[in-house]
Design brief:
By secondary structure, the protein is of the alpha/beta class. The protein contains six helices and ten strands; from the N terminus they run βαβαβαβαβαββββαβ. It folds into two domains: 141 residues, Tetrapyrrole methylase, N-terminal domain (Cobalt-precorrin-4 Transmethylase, domain 1, 3-Layer(aba) Sandwich); 101 residues, Tetrapyrrole methylase, C-terminal domain (Methyltransferase, Cobalt-precorrin-4 Transmethylase, Domain 2), CATH 3.30.950.10. The chain binds S-adenosylmethionine. It is an enzyme of class 2 (transferase).
Length: 251
């Protein structure tokens, strides 16, 4: 049976790779590398660097998957994502069929960890649901959330309290007391009311990493400026932040 290793590669720094991930890299015959266009060329390069650095026998094959573009979501976000996943599943199934021999092992290198805002596992389940015979295994990686906490030297939760992980699109103007925000294309923190602290990180784990922490009302202007400048310079931005409600008397 064909097998796919879904390997979390950490969110930005090749040193985030676990020993288990390195062992998995060395088992794979074929690496399937998604190509998401020019703006993400730097991310593609990190995957290539990881293979060159950690795979001992350099006789593996790489196959590039040109990822289909996602249609504008409009009002039907879930519908647009579902259509996109269907196209991706079809494209991957075709590649697994044609590029991976029976009994061979392929690998997908997933940014951060596959369990967090990543569709790889859903796509594999879709392929299997079509009747395609495929085994797969998941190797966890360091998420951008863990990288953020480590770089700011903070615990995500307060003692005995929950933490919400959400997206910029879903961030409320009065968020949970402790909320981690990802996939924020629109500076959702700027519409937050109330007294919050923010721990913000962009390009975490990379040489271009930027960190800012402070009271939201005092640093949000600076974050907006840094985001704008970085985006103009690089053409894209990847940032994550923790919002923490300021409350006296709570730890
Ligand atoms: C599609 S999600 C992938 C998350 C990934 N699976 C993980 O485990 O972190 C992409 C979002 O993750 C966050 N992200 C990923 N890598 C990051 C990094 N190096 N620095 C800051 N944020 C990052 C950003 O919020 C970005 O919009």
């Amino acid at each position: 049976m064909r097998k796919i290793l879904v390997i979390g590669i950490g969110a930005g720094n090749p040193d985030y790779l676990t020993v288990q991930a390195i062992a998995a890299l060395n088992k794979a015959d074929v690496f399937f590398i998604p190509d998401k266009g020019e703006e993400k060329a730097a991310l593609r390069q990190l995957r290539t660097d990881i293979l060159e650095r950690f795979v001992e026998a350099q006789d593996y094959r790489t196959v590039v998957l040109k990822t289909p573009k996602r249609a504008e979501a409009g009002t039907d976000y879930r519908g647009a994502v579902d259509d996109w996943h269907a196209k991706l599943a079809e494209a991957y199934r075709h590649l697994f069929e044609t590029e991976l021999g029976e009994g061979e092992c392929g690998a997908l290198l997933v940014w951060g960890d596959p369990s967090l805002y990543d569709s790889t596992l859903r796509i594999i389940e879709r392929i299997i649901a079509t009747g395609f015979s495929l085994d797969y295994e998941v190797i966890p990686g360091i998420t951008s959330v863990q990288a953020l906490a480590a770089r700011h030297r903070i615990a995500l939760n307060r003692i005995g309290e929950p933490v919400l992980i959400t997206t910029g699109r879903k961030l409320e103007s009065e968020p949970a007391e402790d909320a981690v925000v990802m996939l924020d294309g629109e500076q959702a923190f700027s519409r937050v009311v109330g007294e919050y602290e923010i721990f913000w990180g962009a390009y975490l784990g990379t040489p271009e990493e930027i960190l800012v922490a402070g009271r939201l009302d005092e640093v949000s202007g600076e974050i907006e400026r840094l985001r704008r400048e970085a985006r103009e310079q690089k053409g894209w931005i990847m940032d994550t932040y923790l919002l923490r409600k300021l409350e006296t008397g709570k730890e």
